[in-house]
């Protein structure tokens, strides 16, 4: 049975950083479990684990760059499109897997430890909802960062990619006085959540697909 090159590329990237990724997630999990117990809330856990995963996955670009993997891979039956798509799949796949699991875990721990099991369904929905909101922000950030990694390289893109992570969160604080009261007074029960979620996911999918197409174009134009 013939295996598609993209699957092999994903396995290559995963095994390259598996040990480091597990240690990074484990360390952040222990640290933010302790902080969460002390603060009596696990709300920081999903965001910090997702940040740890996204930072860890940068290593796959660094390893490819230092070993000149892409130049070698293109001498094989592998196309620039295969190389780019595999990166998007492992990056977004890893981020969403960890993000959703962390959101479920933090909501469950919050419910059991700090709410005595009360309103379990509501706490679960809020926890997963908060995690999805953070995932959307990170997804938009990564859609900018991957083309930068491929165009500039890891070293040259460190400052611009750091800014892409900081800007969305820093922008919240100066503007919260405008949209905070509006959110606080909103009748959340009247919101058509399936439609809102569908529109948000569709818009996000379009942005990621455009980002992927830009990255493929960058890879096709690179000279090795």
Automatic annotation (TrEMBL):
The keyword Methyltransferase does not apply. Keywords: Membrane, Transmembrane, Transmembrane helix. This is ABC-2 transporter permease. InterPro entries: ABC2_memb-like. The chain crosses the membrane at residues 20-39, 45-63, 89-109, 124-150, 162-179, 191-212.
């Amino acid at each position: 049975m013939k295996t598609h090159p993209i699957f092999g590329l994903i396995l290559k990237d995963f095994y390259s950083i598996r040990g480091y990724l597990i240690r990074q997630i484990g360390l952040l999990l222990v640290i933010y479990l302790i902080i969460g117990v002390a603060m009596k809330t696990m709300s920081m856990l999903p965001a910090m684990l997702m940040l740890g995963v996204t930072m860890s996955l940068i290593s796959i670009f660094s390893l490819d760059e230092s070993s000149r993997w892409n130049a070698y891979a293109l001498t094989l039956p592998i196309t620039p499109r295969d190389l780019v798509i595999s990166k998007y799949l492992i990056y977004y796949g890893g981020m969403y897997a960890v993000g959703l699991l962390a959101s479920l875990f933090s909501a469950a721990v919050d419910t059991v430890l700090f709410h005595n099991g009360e309103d379990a369904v509501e706490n679960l929905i809020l926890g997963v909802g908060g995690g999805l909101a953070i995932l959307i922000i990170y997804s938009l950030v990564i859609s900018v960062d991957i083309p930068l990694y491929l165009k500039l390289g890891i070293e040259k893109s460190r400052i611009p990619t750091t800014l892409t992570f900081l800007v969305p969160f820093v922008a919240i604080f100066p503007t919260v006085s405008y949209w905070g009261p509006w959110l606080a007074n909103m009748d959340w029960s009247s919101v058509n959540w399936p439609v809102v979620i569908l529109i948000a996911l569709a818009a996000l999918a379009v942005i990621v697909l455009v980002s992927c197409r830009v990255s493929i174009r960058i890879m096709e134009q690179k000279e090795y």
